[in-house]
Amino acid sequence: MNYQDIHFELRGDHSEVAVVRLARTAKRNALSDGLILALRDLFEQMPASVRAAVIDGEGPHFCAGLDLSELQERDAGQGLHHSRMWHAALDRVQYGPVPVIAALHGAVVGGGLELASACHIRVADASTFYALPEGSRGIFVGGGGAVRIPKLIGVARMTDMMLTGRVYDAQEGERVGLAQYLVPEGQAFDKALELALRVAQNAPLTNYALMHALPRIAEQPADQGLFTEAMMAAIAQSAPEAKQRLADFLEGRAAKVRKN
Ligand code: 1HE
């Protein structure tokens, strides 16, 4: 499969993990319109074997955000449509066919952080740093960051990042919730791939519930959320794969939960 400025490959014994690598190294993987549309198309056309995906970036940085050279004079309507194009693409990442793990290193800034926050798990190496330079460029987030980033770190921290240009380093980023895993420099991709291979073994309906039901349930009033949870639980339990996995445990064939 050929997508503009993306290297794509399949990993795993059954081609169950898609590796999606941003490959505009000379521009620090800045997200041009072409690259955003390629991401949208790729997640819409994911091969049927794929059960989990990893997104990472080639070169010294994960992603420098919006390609500022394309930020030409737009009127309000064009600006609205441009932002909506990003929303459509990053919605395909968050609500696409499979869980997505971001492997972060170097700059994760602006639209790069918006892309990372559309993923389901973030693994950062020690070189990672996070910023929202939109504040100092006289613009605003437009790729879903205002919705997704406060869910990770809260409105107050995002406001601070944009008002003051605050940069979080890798340790601080993990502490405040920008990444769930922090690994030594150079190891983010390997850890993300290891996690993706693990995620790919889950029952597809469980992964679907986590991607599509959980974020919606978390937004619902408690009474409705509990009802939706019960519906999703009942559907997941009734799948043949769930019955097989439960039988495997009860008959001693499945792994126990062990502390690390
Ligand atoms: C770019 C971009 C870009 C680099 N658009 N061309 N994002 C930003 O405001 C971040 C801007 N970039 C940076 O702060 C730095 O480039 C980095 C910290 C990411 C990397 O620094 P460094 O020293 O490794 O690279 P560099 O020398 O700054 O950049 C290499 C080239 O990439 C250079 O071009 P060249 O032709 O001079 O070689 C840079 O101009 C180019 N480049 N970043 C275009 N972002 C949906 S709304 C989202 C809104 C936003 O994302 S706003 C935040 C944009």
TrEMBL record:
Gene3D superfamilies: 2-enoyl-CoA Hydratase, Chain A, domain 1, Lyase 2-enoyl-coa Hydratase, Chain A, domain 2. CDD domains: crotonase-like (cd06558). Pfam families: ECH_1. Keywords: Lyase. InterPro entries: ClpP/crotonase-like_dom_sf, Enoyl-CoA_hyd/isom_CS, Enoyl-CoA_hydra/iso, Enoyl-CoA_hydra_C. Belongs to the enoyl-CoA hydratase/isomerase family. This is Crotonase/enoyl-CoA hydratase family protein. It comes from Comamonas terrae.
